[in-house]
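Could you show me just one protein sequence together with its fold in C-alpha cell form as a worked example?
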Amino acid sequence: MGIKGLNAIISEHVPSAIRKSDIKSFFGRKVAIDASMSLYQFLIAVRQQDGGQLTNEAGETTSHLMGMFYRTLRMIDNGIKPCYVFDGKPPDLKSHELTKRSSRRVETEKKLAEATTELEKMKQERRLVKVSKEHNEEAQKLLGLMGIPYIIAPTEAEAQCAELAKKGKVYAAASEDMDTLCYRTPFLLRHLTFSETKKEPIHEIDTELVLRGLDLTIEQFVDLCIMLGCDYCESIRGVGPVTALKLIKTHGSIEKIVEFIESGESNNTKWKIPEDWPYKQARMLFLDPEVIDGNEINLKWSPPKEKELIEYLCDDKKFSEERVKSGISRLKKGLKSGIQGRLDGFFQVVPKTKEQLAAAAKRAQENKKLNKNKNKVTKGRR
C-alpha cells in the first residue's frame, strides 16, 4: 500500500529531493528491485488487445513473465544491472492490512458479478489481480535462466532492497511503495519498471535530502509515515497529511502527540487514537527490519542459459522464438559489457544547506500558484 500522501508532502516541502530523469541517466548503476511490486504491475499492465491477461495455449497466465523478460531487457539495454528481491513471510503486524485487502477482494468479486459492461468487468478484474506463489516461482526460474540475480527476503522486499543500497551493493532501491524511504535507502527509484510507451520519467528520491528538508530525524520521519497511514497499523482518525506533519514538527514523536490529544489541549474532538495502537511495533519494523545482512550477499550477473531459456519461454510458455533469441543476444551483450565507471563517481557531492532547500521549496510553491492562476485565466477565456 505504501504511505498515503507522502509523495505530495515531499513534492511540496522538499521538491529538490525528487529528480526526474530518463532511464539512460542510470547507465552504469546496479539497482535492487521490489520484485513482488513489479510482478503486480506486469499482471495489470501487460495485456492482450481485448484487455485480458496474456496466456499460453494451456490457458496459463504469462503476463508476468512477458513483463519480467522485456522490462529487464530494457534496463540491460540502458546499462543498468538489476537484481530482484522477493517478499518473504509478511510480519505478523501486517495481518490487519491483509485482512482489509481480503475484505476489499470480496467486495470487488461482488461488483464483478454485477457488472454489465465489458469496461466495468475489465476494471473489476484488474482490481482482483494478485501475485501468487506460482507467479513468484516462475519469475525466479526465468531470472535464473537469464543470469539475473534475485534474493528472497526474510520478510519485506523493500527493506531488503534498502539494506543492499545501504551496504553499497547497489546504487538504489526501486519500488512504487514510498515506505521504502522509511528503511533509509540512500535513493528510491520509482517508475523504473514502467512500460517505455508510458513516457513516464523515473523519479529518483534522495532520502537524506528529504530528512534535511523536512528537518526531521529518521525516527520522526517514520512516525510521520505511521501517522499518514502504513501497512502495519491504523493512523489517528481525522488527522490528514498537513496536520500530521505539523503535529510531528511541533511535538517530535507519536508519544508526545498522543499525550497532547489525550490531555484535551488539542481542542479537537474529531481526532481519534486507535485502541491498543501498535505504533511502537510498527516503528521498529521500519527502524530495525528483519533482513539478510547486505555484506553477506554477493550479487553475480551471469551469461544467460540460452538453450534452457528458449525451452522455457518458447516451448513451455509459447513465446515467439525469434523475439526470445533477439532478447538473448541483447542480454549477452549487456551483461558482457559490465558496469562502466560514471563521471559522477569522481566528484564529491556537496550537501545542500537548509536555506537552499527552503528556497527551492518556496520556488516550487510559487510556481504551483502561478500555474493555478494561469489555468484560471485560460478557463475564463473559454
User: Anything to note?
Assistant: Residues 291 and 359 are 38 Å apart (CA to CA). Residues 17-215 form a domain with the Rossmann fold fold (CATH 3.40.50.1010). The two ends are 40 Å apart (CA to CA).
